DH200=94 genomic scaffold, scaffold_8624 (Coffea canephora), 207 residues
Amino acid sequence: LIILQWLHDHPEYKSNPFYVSGISYGGIPVPILTQLISNGKIFSIRLHLWLQGYILGNPITKVSGILNYRVLFAYGMGLISEELYKSLKVSCKGEYEIIDPSNAACSKNMQAYNEASNHIYAIFIHSGIYSSQMSSKILLMEWITLVDHWANNKSVQEALHVRRETIGQWVSCSGTLPYTENAGSVVPYHANLSTKGYRSLIYRFGT
């Protein structure tokens, strides 16, 4: 509804191709939203006609089990030894997110993994930013501070036609929006949209 209202207020953009975009966790809702629009099930058939595809940066593709990829990633990037990687595969059987406390070998190997990678701030381990934990935290906090400052800037909000009385103070990742994580993997959405001929740009930054 907001998109349609914006296009109504700015008709000069109606002829432009429309792409849905997002980053990081946006990798979950963006393909789903794009498919809903493509099916004409939300907004209106008009938006469906303008839809060209979607854009994602550093997206995740599934909610649960994502941490199970961290060991393979750490091995591939040279953060852990081949010996530890093979031992983890055998003892943990690919499950590194929920560790069985009765599996002593897996617990021991995961401890070794954590010790080998604890200098990397966890949020960056899949982003290719291999600085110290402290400097990574500083980098993240500086980024959030800059985004908050930009989004709350009066000139920026005026340019975006934001009605200040509707949002108050804008905060990054406030965590106050209630939702249920039930999407599972969005790979089928990617496949379906590709089959339909929609364009996609999926990129990674930070390396």
